[in-house]
Write a structure and sequence with these properties.
Trna Endonuclease, Chain: A, domain 1, 5-stranded mixed beta sheet, 127 residues, elongated
Length: 127
């Protein structure tokens, strides 16, 4: 997937210190964006403590930018926590994730394409 960033890598699964991967914002790899991903049922929201742990992981690694992605949602206290942080953190919930997948054609297939016709007025001579 390419949305204008450099290379990225997955850092591992369990025991990853709260970081699931890193994306380098520039080609030299100097500006890092860490990400955390949680695949939860839509009724299992990401807790504020999980978001707090992510902010702490950014601090421990000297990183100022992060993206926390979930297939579920973020309750208001999680959103409030991020808004109070001095870090630049983007929360991507399930709805926004689906929209990004569609926008960047990632993990989706086109099932049907519709063609919409209109009358070509140039085809018919005017009298």
């Amino acid at each position: 997937m390419s949305i204008g960033y450099g290379e990225g890598k997955v850092t591992g699964y369990s025991g990853n210190g709260g970081i699931d991967g890193v994306v380098y914002q520039d080609k030299l790899g100097m500006e890092k964006i860490f990400f955390q991903a949680k695949r939860f049922d839509e009724n299992n929201a990401v807790s504020a403590s999980m978001v707090r742990d992510f902010v702490g992981a950014l601090d421990l690694n000297g990183v100022n930018k992060g993206v926390f992605i979930t297939t579920s949602k973020f309750p208001q206290n999680s959103v409030d926590l991020v808004s109070r942080s001095h870090k630049s953190i983007k929360l991507v919930d399930g709805k926004y994730l689906v929209q990004l997948m569609i926008d960047y054609n990632l993990g989706v297939d086109t099932e049907k394409t519709y063609e919409i016709k209109r009358i070509d007025s140039d085809f018919f001579p005017e009298e």
